Amino acid sequence: MAHLNARPLIVFLIVMVPLVLIAALFIGPVISSVETVGNALVGNADNVEQLIVRDIRMPRAVFALLCGALLASCGAVCQGLFRNPLADPSLIGVTGGASMGASLVIALGFIAGPIMTSLFAISMGAFLGGSLATFFVYRLSINERGASVSVMLLAGIAVTAFASAVTNLCEFFSDNEHLRRISIWRMGSLEGASWMELLSLFVLLIVVLVILIRASQSLNALLLGESEARHLGIDVDSLKRRIILVVAMAVGICVAMAGTISFVGLIVPHLIRILIGPDHRYLTFGSALGGGLLLLIADTLARTSFAPEEVPVGVITALAGAPFFIFMLRQRRNSIGG
Can you tell me the distance from the alpha carbon of 200 to that of 188, in angstroms, rounded to the nearest whole number? Predict the structure, then answer.
């Protein structure tokens, strides 16, 4: 399949990011005018309009961009690391572990009181759960020749299944209030992000992109196979450790802050790879831009499709991502059969 030139697509995505971000400020259960949005951004609107545009829609839109960019860029390098275009960060157990950690904190709040169910406690539980799950998966995959990718995938499946079982137990023993909190958190939401949290997430995105883009040439060599990469002078084991650590940290923090948002780390890098090819020098950055756009559009739909009710954004990404995933599987089957 012929690929597009990478640079025009990157430029197109860069142009689309601010346009879609601005559109998200106008769109909501109540459509805001250009004058209202402009006045709100400079602080000249009334209190209600300023609250809606600058304190609710703006941080939420930025949160969607940053979180989507992290998930998709991590998905791109996971697909390169596992040499499988249908891989995503959940395969190393980080998503399941984070869900388990958050669910345990919420369920324990039923016993320990409201302090345990604060947003900070839930986020810390999710981050620690994702980190521990990833560490366990990586340790299981180590043998005398280094980290085995196939064992890592199998260990990720086992750890995710265990984490899912623990999460289900938490739901089973929770009362109605805590059960609802676990369910809503697991469906993903971009509500309640503060500017301080967004600043931290922005710094994390910059650090992650710098690390992943610097590893682009090594990931390109790894696509040829581990033995070939070693012949080219690549420290494959060090590369695996670095990628797994970065992915675990980035995805763990995203899941801690936003809950489980599926398919962004799978669909976007796969689509960008189809368009511009597997070169990670462009694929990683292009996936970050595409992931931010996808999650921003999905969150805008989540806020407006069933207004005044709000649908969790994870539901929107799953509704859009599952059919696309099935389509990719059919395409892959047909290409192998051909």
Answer: 20
